[in-house]
Amino acid sequence: MISKERISEILSGYDAKKLKIASICSHSSLQLFHGARQEGIKTIGICAEGREEIYDAFPLARPDRFITVEDMRNLPEGELAADNAILIPHGSLVEYTGAGLVDLEVPILGNRHSLAWERDRTKMFEWMKAAGLQMPETIDPKKIDRPCVVKTPGAKGGMGYRVVASPEEFEEHFGGQIGVIAQEYLIGVRAYPHYFYSPLSKDGYRTAEGKLELLGIDRRFESNIDEAYRTSIAGITFKPSFTVVGNELLVLRESLLGDVMDMGKGIVEAAERLFGGIPGPFCIETVIDENMQFYAFEVSARIVAGTNIFPLGSPYTAFTYEEPMSMGRRIAVEIKRAAKEKKLGKIIY
Ligand code: AMP
Predict the structure, then answer these.
(1) For a pocket test of ligand 1, which of 95, 128, 150, 242 has the largest count of ligand atoms closer than 8 A to its C-beta?
(2) Ordered domains of the chain (ranges, CATH)
(3) Which ligand 1 atom is at minimum distance from the Cα of 300?
(4) Pocket perturbation via mutation, ligand 1, pick of 125, 148, 161, 163 by most ligand atoms within 8 A of CB
(5) What pLDDT, in 10s, does the model give residues 105-156?
(6) Tens digit of pLDDT for each residue in 189-216?
(7) Burial letters 95-133, b for 16+ CB under 10 A, else e
(8) Which end of the chain has fewer CB atoms at under 10 Å, N or C?
């Protein structure tokens, strides 16, 4: 991993008045560019050739400048750093850059240690446990005794997952594959709360040295399981799959919000203890069972696509901000404030 000193050195050469927000044109980039624009920050979209025209369809979310690349695994670090860019990580960026993400020679919003902890499932579960979250059991494939979701490696939005109920079934579909885990299948309602942790603020819901905000909650649409009732009613039997295709809004019973904030606080404070914190956006993926208990099965240490439902704010940001506040805009607000207070080092690594 590139050292924090090296990133601070690059940042110290930046012109604070010309900071730009950069991201790969995918996942949640429309929202990131739109939010930056609302805050008067210029943007750079890293794009595969030919994809620029998609952004012509959304003029208020079109990046000010495109850098086209042939291979997303090779980001133009030098060019970005020369243009005062802060890179915002999202699911596609994490997937494209893989293990190389932590070595990128360009300032990244957040703490790149958290992305490394998210990448490695063993570490991610250690972090969630340290946060005090209730979690489903991870089961040794040879001892599968109940329905389990088998998860393939990487952030591919559930692609390739499958439910198995015995060691034989596991062996039939995943035998010999590396990095695959079997996790107890959780029954209940899925809820994916989106948080923003600011170490710069001393008001609001106090967490670690700063404050924690709840910017929204979504539920995902996954193919084919989320339209399974239609298939079943049509009399067709099928194997459920979990490939994420979109997101929808969820508002929780107000009595559950205490648990939502507690879980977020646990994640932030455990991140402080384990690897130096998690400034910026993150999400906890949960299932709420019939006894109103939350079970968390994953943490995303970055903006998640579920926030795309709220380009003009959510049913929760309405109670926090006078103006429409998306996660993209919240990120831009934080960068602007940190630059003004000369505290970029607190939110960037
Ligand atoms: P993930 O890659 O962990 O975000 O999972 C993709 C999707 O698989 C989730 O959005 C859930 O719908 C489903 N899923 C993952 N883990 C579980 C679990 N333990 N029980 C039930 N569904 C799960």
Answers:
(1) 242
(2) 4-134+187-347 (3.30.470.20), 141-184 (no CATH)
(3) 4
(4) 161
(5) 999 999 999 999 999 999 999 999 999 999 999 999 999 999 999 999 875 7
(6) 999 999 999 999 999 999 999 999 999 9
(7) bbbeeebbebebbbbbbbbbbbbbbebeebbebbeebeb
(8) N
